[in-house]
Specification:
78% helix, mainly alpha, globular
Length: 405
């Protein structure tokens, strides 16, 4: 059994690793989820079919010991935690809206959001084992629901005619589409190590990642695009209620519960890491999760769901620089590879971490700033490239100054 603290500040012991299926089904829950379906519906409602699939294809291709240092990891942990708070608020709002519809509006949106947020938070407090139990039930149910709704929507409507119509939603360019696709998947990429650290070998990690990309990005998004065009709406609650009625609403509720488990779980790990890196104090997992759950529930009540596209756009520009810097540092500059490899042989993390990775922080801010303010190219790719170049140049410059000194 995995303990409640889930080893937030240490390597997962070998005897606590789990099977490929156990990790894969939880990881698939991040992208075979209602938010991914919602993203596909937005693309289908606002873009032509060809442009929408180009955005998916391009968007899909794109920490402490990876250049940021101890204080830099605090910054990354806080950014991840805040973004996951946003995801929790969005998911909980969908949950509450679906629950309210399923109960014939007896509770109202506000009470539904408070109830769903409380239930989700309590469940996540029980740790990773609770996530696996929920995912094993919810993932198959959600996939079955999507298959059924797809069958009903795509066989009962003139899909060919719908595909020829001008998208009824606010137009999205390919550049904007790529950015929100990246925004929908980028935090899942950063969350992936929180889950794959339970895998037994690197082959399982690769298999889990590829399976999730294929299932989430191409299948779930693709079906959502076609359904949105067929029904002429991007309102996922309406889509599910039209296709599967009250039973479909209950599956949506349960599926949202499962993916929000992941949001709170990884957000809690990010906060614990940030506090430990800043102050040396080790916060407990359970109270941290409870506090984050309360904040996320408040966001959903305040209407974060109405800012879904804006939220994805910001994520699609802010996070690519972080991942790009980690990859440059780990595979090219290899600044901490020796320490990581040595500690891995002993089943622990490195004893010492650089206080601050100034190059990584400067590059992250520069990449995100250029991506947000520039109006040329694809913002998510621009922010990634700028951050990588700035990080490499800063690293070389600081290294040369140290050598001269």
């Amino acid at each position: 059994m995995i303990k409640i603290d889930d080893f937030p500040l240490t390597r997962v012991p070998q005897d606590k690793k789990v099977s490929f299926l156990s990790v894969a089904i939880v990881h698939m829950g991040m992208l075979t989820a209602l938010d991914q379906f919602m993203l596909g519906a937005v693309l289908g409602h606002s873009m032509t079919l060809v442009d929408a699939f180009i955005a998916i294809a391009v968007g899909s291709l794109l920490a402490r010991w990876c250049g940021f240092g101890r204080l830099g990891s605090v910054l990354i942990g806080l950014i991840v935690a805040i973004s996951l708070l946003g995801w929790f608020g969005i998911q909980n709002a969908i949950f509450a809206k679906s629950l309210d519809v399923a109960l014939d509006h007896r509770l109202g949106f506000g009470w539904s959001a408070a109830l769903s947020g409380s239930v989700l938070t309590i469940l996540v407090t029980f740790g990773f084992r609770a996530l696996r139990i929920a995912a094993r039930i919810a993932v198959p149910l959600f996939i079955a629901l999507v298959a059924w709704v797809s069958w009903v929507a795509l066989t009962g409507h003139d899909l060919h005619g719908a595909l020829q119509l001008t998208p009824p939603g606010d137009p999205l360019s390919i550049s904007a589409g790529i950015t929100i696709v990246v925004g929908g998947a980028i935090v899942a990429s950063l969350m992936t190590p929180d889950l794959t650290r339970y895998s037994r070998n690197s082959g399982q990690v690769l298999g889990v990642t590829l399976l999730t990309i294929i299932a989430g990005e191409f299948i779930i998004n693709g079906l959502a695009i076609l359904i949105a065009k067929s029904l002429g709406t991007d309102d996922v609650v309406s889509i599910m209620s039209q296709g599967a009625g009250g039973l479909g609403m209950m599956v949506v509720v349960f599926s949202t519960l499962r993916v929000n488990d992941l949001n709170l779980y990884s957000s809690s790990l990010g906060i614990v890491n940030a506090v430990e890196g800043l102050s040396g104090r080790k916060w407990k997992y359970a109270p941290t999760t409870l506090a984050i759950g309360v904040l996320g529930t408040t966001l959903s009540v305040l209407g974060i769901l109405d800012r879904f596209v804006d939220f994805l756009t910001v994520l699609g520009v802010v996070f690519p620089p972080v991942i790009g810097i980690m990859l440059i540092d780990y595979f090219l500059l290899r600044t901490h590879r020796a320490a990581l490899d040595e500690s891995r042989r002993h089943g622990r993390l490195p004893d010492e971490t650089p206080t601050i990775g100034l190059s990584a922080i400067i590059a992250s801010v520069a990449g995100a700033a250029v991506g947000l303010i520039s109006d040329w190219g694809v913002p998510t790719i621009t922010s990634l490239l700028v951050a990588c170049v700035v990080y490499w140049l800063c690293h070389r410059l600081f290294a040369r100054k140290l050598a001269i000194a």
